[in-house]
Amino acid sequence: MLATTVAVVSVLVGGLLMAVGLTGHVFGAWRSPESLTPGLIGAAMLGTAPGLFAVSRARAWHEVRTLVLPLAIVLVGLFSVSLLDAGHLYIARGGSVVPVLFSLGWLFVLGVLSVFALVALAWQYLARARPIGPRTAPLPGWSKPALAVLGSAWLGIGAGLLTRPGFWGGFVPWATNRADAQALGVWALALGVGVLGALAEDDLTRTAAALIALPCTAVTVTVVLACRASAVDWHSGPALSLVCMVAGLLLAGASGRVLLTRTSPARP
């Protein structure tokens, strides 16, 4: 229920942020110096929605935790960032009625969903653990080093943007402020946790929902970056690193889906 609710919100809000960002206009809960950041946040929300809808088809916790744990990080992280940077919100700084109401709704919805996410995780881990069967589709050996590098890259960038946004925000190849850098850091951290979580699970059948979200997120992010290419400093090292990391998400998700389809183990 939590994943489906967040998926619906992500389609509506993420689609709006992405669509407005593609036009070059700035729209979001806070005032950003460039439309690319809210556009990318919307793209990430929209891209993860198909994977969240797939959570309802799972029958055990270990089949969805590689996606639900990053989901909780995004919800709690964005809510915390919004509170820490409350001075940047339109509801605090003022403005036209639409952005002010949007920032108010953003804060309220994130707060409610964060509470439910924490309750759901606590309930899950406090409940009596059910026996987990053997791994039926382990990850191929050649993929593990690449996944470790990809997950560590996203995790490291996310942690840096969250803890020291003033320093690491300067490496973002477009104009950002503190709230932008920390919001991007939340998403990067969640992606890193998801990739490394899939590596720890070491089973394609346990990452089926995440394997839907990864390539979809990579595609939506690529669309925003391509349409707003003029705002990115493509001659910088961070821009090249971003391209490689987004391509890594796409390759990881697409290859995982192909391997999962080929193995298709019999479900009990």
Walkthrough of the structure:
The protein is an all-alpha fold and 268 residues long. The chain contains ten helices and no strands. It is globular, with a radius of gyration of 18 Å.
Summarize the structure.
With about 270 residues, the chain is mainly α. The protein contains 10 helices and no strands.
Using brief descriptors, characterize the structure shown.
268 residues; mainly alpha; globular
The helix tally amounts to 10
For this structure, the quaternary state is single chain
Number of strands: 0
The helix-and-strand class reads mainly alpha
Molecular shape: globular
Radius of gyration: 18 Å
Largest beta sheet, briefly? none
Low-confidence stretches: none
Q: How far from one another are the termini? A: 24 Å
**Content of β-strand:** under 5%
Mean pLDDT: 91
**Helical amount:** over 70%
The sequence of SSEs as H and E is: HHHHHHHHHH
